[in-house]
Structures are given as structure tokens and as C-alpha cells.
Amino acid sequence: MPIRLDKPWIALSTKNLEQVKGHLGVYELGSEIDGVVFIGCADARSLFGLKGELQDHLDKGAQTCFRIEITSAYQTRYRELLMVHYADFQAYPRDNIEADLPRLGKLSPL
Amino acid sequence: MDLQQSDEQKLIVATVRRFVLEEILPLEMNLDPDADSLEPADRERLVGKVKEMGLYGLDIPQEFGGPGLDMVTKTLISIEMAQHRAGLYSPCYGVFGGAGLAQLYEATEDQKERYLYPTLRGEKRGFFGLTEPSGGSDPARAIQTRAIKDGDDWVINGSKIFISGADVADFGLVFARTSPDKGRGGVTCFIVDTDTPGFHVRRVIHTLRSAHYATELQFEEMRVPARNILGEVNKGFSIANDRLSRQRIPYSAGCIGVAIKAHELAVEYAKIRETFGAPLASRQAIQWMLVDNELDIKQSRWVTLEAADMADRGMPFRKEAAMAKLLASEAGSRVVDRCMQIHGGYGVTKDFPFERWYREMRIRRIGEGPSEVQRHIIARDILGSSLR
């Protein structure tokens, strides 16, 4: 399993969200041009899983793309994606509020 | 051996039990079912309460500021602390404090100043780096990470796997081979700062548990000064070995605590849940599952407390610790499985703690020496020198 999410970006739209189900997992918002602007997680408190989390972003007017990874290890995968992003760019994604992030360590991925 | 608790032990056990019920469980209801930490403000408040109770830093030796409790009392406390959803790998979400790396209590004064005392003050965190991709059950033979002397330094190359907390640690104990001798005679323990050039945490290893997740490390021409050797050159394995035996008792206690809580929930559920016009508790199939739970819990508890008692008396307890770990981890798995079954469909949802306990308990049969290794230790003791 690659350490970075490398799936193609999909435009965040009502139509495209029809293909997303309520699984637990992690997701990224962004695009080829902007890169990753937000890393999120659909954890077990989420009512409708990945579909619900992405729908929330759409409802708030987000005009971006998304990609997802369905995983039951959503807690550790979420932290890993944030740490990898930091390792790659020396910063967390633009729209992740640092104060809301869990305690994160330091990775030096290949 | 007298298992009757003293009045002091009863008071301590009751205090911790009340703490879990009144402080931990209400907070846990609002956390993700796989959470392993509290909100910082809640954590700080509860650490304050634990310090007021005089129970902070249970494993810190008294001469270093710990509460000075014996192993039996600490085991009883560990059983109580584990009785919540995250209790197996994050008992009370860490608010009772850790001991840091126990091996540092034997360090030189210079090493204590740089690593132990800052750890006890909460300024630094450490990791324990023993297991390698080549093996973990037999670390004496499996260690391939090499350290080669170069002037006043040692240059380390190699890798470690399944290492908890390395990504958030400031330093760690890394075991490397310093002699071409195979086996335990050629291993040295190094204290490594995680900002040392050549120290890399390559990835998180995603497993059945989210708490204290494991990582994979790589060392590339990592230069460590000789003053960071813990103990002596080529004598590091005894440091690792001592930890393995001691850890098995609290490890077992955690399994017992979760089993007790799971069983308690199952008993209550069986009394109220009805099928075909009668409560589950009236069905012999369910009754026998609950009986088997009681037997499993009692047996593991007795053996674990016996091992703790022997440790307190200064008697050899390696076999008893192995028995405790073997029994408690396997019994814990059986108990959680039965309790999940009793809860039916609800048992596999994240609304109940069983699915987390089921996953995490599976790891307990492998970590800190798998069941097969524990059986090997016990067999070796039974059969004596004929097995060597």
C-alpha cells in the first residue's frame, strides 16, 4: 500500500458522491494544481462515513476535488497522511487547522 | 499464597475503580471508539487528580519519586485501570503516568541527567527498539542491525519494526550487534536521540489497533557517541531480557481487566435481553458461556497475582510470568469472544466496546512474546537442562 494517497482526483459534486459509500476511512481535498489542501477522516462517530464527510464539504460550498481510502485503520492512516504531508512540505495542508489536529509525530518517508 | 487484599489494597482498588467509572467512562462516551487519547484539558485535569490520589507514576521506583507500591498492588490497580474501551492499550488514557524506560534507572549519572530525569519530568519521551524485520521472538539471534566502532563513536546501520512511539519520541533504546558473535553475547544497547542524522521513521504500520501504533525505523550511517551505550558493550541483551519478563505481569493484568469488564457487560445483557419469550440468562448455552468466562478470569487472575507475589518476594518468577501471560492473553480472547457472541449483532458494532477488545486482544497473544514462546519458556523450566 503506498504511503501517500496517489489515486486520481475526482471533482467534488453531487453526481460523483453517488459513487461514494458510507465506509469509514480517510480522504483528501485538493487538485492537481493546488495539491492537497485538506486531509480528513471519517471516523466511527461520523453518521454517514466518507460520503457524509464529503457531502458536508460540498454543502459548505467547497469547489475542489477529492480522493478517498476506505480503511478500518482510519485513526492511524489519518495521522500518517498528515505526517507524510508535513515531511513533504514542512507544513500541514492549508485548510487543516493545526489546533484541531491530534498529536502527531515525525516521519521521514521514502 | 494469601490472595486476601489488605485494607490498604482494598482502598486503593476501590479508589481506582471509582475513578474509571466516574472520570474515564463519561469522557470515553464522546470519543471515537478507536481513540487513544483525551482532549489536552481533560488529560491535564485527570493527571492532577491522580497526583492528588498519590498514584501517579506507578512504575517509577520510590527513590525516583514513585508511590512505592509492590507488584501485587500495582497488578490489582492495572486490572482496574483496563476496564474501559481503550483500557487494553491505553489504560485510563495514560493519566496514571508511565515509568519511562525502566532500563534507564540503571544508567550512568550522565545518562540519567540527559534522559531519565527529563522523562520523569514529562519533558522527553523514549521508545524501545528491539524487534527487527528478521524476527522478534528470538531477538538474540534475529538482530542484524550493526554498530561498528569509529573513533569515539559507533556507526549504526539497520532497521527495526513494530516499534511503538518512535515517531513522537525524543530518544530511544536501540539494540545493535557489536560483535560478529551470533546470539545474545554480541548485542549492545544504545541510547539514540531521534534528531540524530541517519535516524528515520519510515512509516506507520497499520494493525488491528490504533493506540500506540507501531512504526518502522531505518538507521543509515547513524553516528552515536560511546557515552550513549547503556550498560556495557556486548552485554545489552540482558537489558532487553529483563524487561521482557517484568512486562508480562502488567500485560497480563490488562487482559484480565478487559475480560472482567466484558463479562460484566455480558452478564447484565443476558439478564435483560429476551429471545423466544425468555431472557438469554435462562438459556443453558448462555449460562455455560458465562461460567466459562468466570473460570477463565479466575484462573488467569490467580496465576498473575502469584507471579506478582513471587516478584515481590524476590523469588525467580520467569516461568510464572510466562504462565500468566499465556493464560491471561488466551483467556482474555475467549472471554471477549463469548461476550461478543452473547451480544449478538450489537456485539460487532462500534457502539459497544467488544469489537475493539476483540481486535486488540488478538494482538496480546503475539506481543511481548507469543503464546508459543511462553510455552517454550515453561517447558524449558519443567524439563530442565535436557531441553538445552
Structure overview:
The complex is a heterodimer of chains A (about 110) and B (about 400). Chain A has helices spanning about 15, 50-60, 75-90, and strands at about 10, 25-30, 35-40, 65-70. With about 110 residues, chain A is an alpha+beta fold. Chain A has a single domain (about 10-95), classed as 3-Layer(aba) Sandwich (GIY-YIG endonuclease), CATH 3.40.1440. In chain A, a hairpin with a 3-residue loop joins β2 and β3 (about 35-40). The radius of gyration of chain A is 13 Å and the shape is globular. By secondary structure, chain B is α+β, with helices and mostly antiparallel strands. Helix content of chain B is about 45%, strand content about 15%. In chain B, α1 (about 5-30) runs parallel beside α3 (about 70-80), α3 runs antiparallel to α7 and α8 (about 320-340) runs antiparallel to α10 (about 355-365). At the A-B interface, α3 of A face β6 of B.
Strand content of chain B: 15-25%
Task: State the assembly state of the protein chains.
Answer: heterodimer
Give the rounded overall mean pLDDT of chain B: 93
Largest interface chains and counts? A-B, 22 and 23 residues
> Helicity of chain A, in percent?
25-40%
In DSSP terms, counting alpha (H) and pi (I) runs of 4 or more, how many helices of chain B? Answer: 11
Our count of domains of chain B comes out at 3
Rg of chain B, rounded, reads: 22 Å
CATH class of the largest domain in chain B: Mainly Alpha
Q: Which range does the strand content of chain A fall in?
A: 15-25%
Number of helices of chain A: 3
Q: What's the SSE blueprint?
A:
The complex is a heterodimer of chains A (110) and B (388).
Chain A: E1 10-11, H1 14-17, E2 25-31, E3 35-42, H2 49-59, E4 65-70, H3 74-89
Antiparallel strand pairs in A: 1-4, 2-3, 2-4
Chain B: H1 7-28, H2 40-53, H3 71-81, H4 109-120, E1 126-129, H5 139-142, E2 146-150, E3 153-164, E4 171-177, E5 187-193, E6 199-205, E7 214-225, E8 229-230, H6 237-272, E9 274-275, E10 278-279, H7 284-312, H8 318-342, H9 344-347, H10 354-364, H11 371-383
Parallel strand pairs in B: 1-4
Antiparallel strand pairs in B: 2-3, 3-7, 4-5, 5-8, 6-7, 9-10
Helix pairs in contact in B: 1-3, 3-6, 3-7, 6-7, 6-8, 6-10, 7-8, 8-10, 8-11
